[in-house]
C-alpha cells in the first residue's frame, strides 16, 4: 500500500486507547496522525497526558509521543484531519452514541470499542471471522444518517470472544443451549493491579451489565441482515445463560462453557471443526489476522492464561478440556486476550476488513 490511511484515536489516553497506540505503531495500512481525549488532557503532548498512567509493557511509540492531544468534543476539527477514527471514549452511553454519530455525520467512519451502539439495529457488531457479511447493513445506516461515507461499526464485548468463536465453528451441529461462566481479567475494567488493590487474593462475583452482554451479543453476531427494514435481526438460538466474575489476572478472559446440540456429534468432529475454522481475514491475509484463528489444546490443564493468552499475538482463541457432560452434551474451557482480540486488536482487524470491502477509504 503506497499511502497509509490517516487514523485518529478517540479516548487515546485510556487503557484501550493505549493499546490502539501500540498496535498501530507499525501498521502497514494505517497511521495514527491524531489523538484525542477529555478536555482535561487537551493541549498536552500525548506523553504528558499519559505520564504516570501508561499501562502498556512497551514504551510509547515515538511517532505518537509528541502529538498534541485534542479535545474529543472538537468533532469538526478532528474530522478534517483523518480518514477514519477508532473510538474508545470514556463517557456515559448516551453521550457516546451522540458523539459517535456526530463523527459519522462528518463523513468520518467510526470503528468503536464501546458498547453504546452495539444494539443500534443498523450498526454492525463484527467479529471478522464470523460475520463479515453484516457490513452490508452499513448502506442502510448511511441512509438513516444522511451520509455517503460516514458510518459506525462496533466490535462485541471482550468476554464473549472466549467462547463464541467455538460455538460459531460448531454452528453446523446446531447448538441449542449454552451455559457460559467467564473469569475476567482486571484490564477489562481498564485497570492494572496498582489501580485495583481490591482484586488481590480475591474474586469479585459481579461485573455490571456483563451477563446481559454475554447472553445477547452472540445472538446479534449470528443474526442476519434484513434488507426490508435495513437492520440486523438477531438469531434466537442457542439460548445462553451466563455468570461473569472478575479475577486477579491482568490480561485474559477464561470461560467455562456447557453446550447442548440438536445433532449428535463426536469429540473428533468438534475438534476438527475448531481447527479448520477460517474466515475472510485468513483468506485475505489481513495484517492483524491470526493465521490460526482457533487452536485446540489437548493437555488436561490447558488453556492457561500464563501460557496461552498471547497465542497468535493475542488475536487467536484457545480451546481445551472438551469432554462429555452428565447434564449437557459437552463442556469446554476457552481463553481469549481481552485487550488484543477482545478490544483494540479486534477493532483494528474490523477496520482492515472494512477497508478491504471498500467501506473505509482515503478522504
UniProtKB/TrEMBL annotation:
GO biological process: any one? threonine biosynthetic process
| Record-given protein name | Aspartate-semialdehyde dehydrogenase
Does the record bear Oxidoreductase in its keywords?
Answer: yes
- Protein family: Belongs to the aspartate-semialdehyde dehydrogenase family.
Q: Which SMART domains match?
A: Semialdhyde_dh
Query: What positions constitute the catalytic site?
Result: 158, 253
Q: Does the keyword Oxidoreductase apply?
A: yes
Entries under InterPro entries matching the protein: ASADH-related, Asp_semi-ald_DH_pep-lack, NAD(P)-bd_dom_sf, Semialdehyde_DH_NAD-bd, Semialdhyde_DH_dimer_dom
Transmembrane ranges, per UniProt, are none
For this UniProt entry, the molecular function terms from Gene Ontology, in alphabetical order, are: aspartate-semialdehyde dehydrogenase activity; NAD binding; NADP binding; protein dimerization activity
Q: What is the species listed in this Swiss-Prot or TrEMBL entry?
A: Liquorilactobacillus satsumensis DSM 16230 = JCM 12392
- Write out the entry's keywords from A to Z: NADP, Oxidoreductase
Q: What is the lineage of its organism?
A: Bacteria, Bacillati, Bacillota, Bacilli, Lactobacillales
Q: Where is the Semialdehyde dehydrogenase NAD-binding domain?
A: 6-138
Amino acid at each position: 500500500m503506497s499511502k497509509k490511511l490517516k487514523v485518529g484515536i478517540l479516548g487515546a489516553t485510556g487503557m484501550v486507547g493505549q493499546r490502539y497506540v501500540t498496535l498501530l505503531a507499525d501498521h502497514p495500512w494505517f497511521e495514527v496522525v491524531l489523538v484525542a481525549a477529555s478536555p482535561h488532557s487537551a493541549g498536552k503532548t500525548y506523553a504528558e497526558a499519559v505520564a504516570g498512567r501508561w499501562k502498556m509493557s512497551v514504551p510509547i511509540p515515538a511517532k505518537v509521543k509528541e502529538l498534541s492531544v485534542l479535545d474529543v468534543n472538537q468533532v469538526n476539527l478532528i474530522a478534517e484531519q483523518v480518514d477514519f477514527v477508532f473510538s474508545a471514549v470514556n463517557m456515559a452511553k448516551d453521550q457516546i452514541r451522540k458523539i459517535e454519530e456526530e463523527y459519522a455525520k462528518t463523513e468520518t467512519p467510526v470503528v468503536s470499542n464501546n458498547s453504546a451502539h452495539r444494539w443500534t439495529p443498523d450498526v454492525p457488531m463484527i467479529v471478522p471471522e464470523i460475520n463479515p457479511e453484516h457490513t452490508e447493513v452499513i448502506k442502510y445506516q448511511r441512509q438513516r444518517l444522511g451520509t455517503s461515507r460516514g458510518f459506525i461499526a462496533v466490535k462485541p464485548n471482550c468476554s464473549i470472544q472466549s467462547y463464541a468463536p467455538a460455538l460459531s465453528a460448531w454452528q453446523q451441529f446446531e447448538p441449542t443451549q449454552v451455559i457460559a461462566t467467564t473469569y475476567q481479567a482486571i484490564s477489562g475494567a481498564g485497570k492494572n493491579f496498582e489501580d485495583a488493590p481490591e482484586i488481590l487474593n480475591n474474586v469479585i462475583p459481579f461485573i455490571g451489565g456483563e451477563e446481559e452482554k454475554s447472553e445477547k451479543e452472540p445472538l446479534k453476531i449470528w443474526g442476519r441482515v434484513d434488507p426490508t427494514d435495513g437492520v440486523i435481526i438477531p438469531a434466537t438460538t442457542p439460548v445462553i445463560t451466563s455468570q461473569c466474575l472478575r479475577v486477579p489476572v491482568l490480561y485474559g478472559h477464561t470461560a467455562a462453557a456447557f453446550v447442548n446440540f440438536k445433532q449428535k456429534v463426536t469429540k473428533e468432529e468438534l475438534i476438527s471443526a475448531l481447527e479448520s475454522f477460517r474466515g475472510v481475514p485468513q483468506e485475505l491475509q489481513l495484517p492483524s489476522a491470526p493465521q490460526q484463528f482457533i487452536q485446540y489444546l489437548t493437555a488436561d490443564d490447558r488453556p492457561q492464561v500464563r501460557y496461552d493468552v498471547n497465542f497468535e499475538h493475542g488475536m487467536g482463541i484457545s480451546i481445551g478440556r472438551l469432554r462429555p457432560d452428565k447434564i449437557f452434551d459437552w463442556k469446554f474451557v476457552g481463553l481469549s486476550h481481552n485487550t488484543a482480540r477482545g478490544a483494540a486488536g479486534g477493532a483494528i482487524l474490523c477496520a482492515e476488513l472494512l477497508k478491504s470491502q471498500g467501506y473505509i477509504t482515503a478522504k
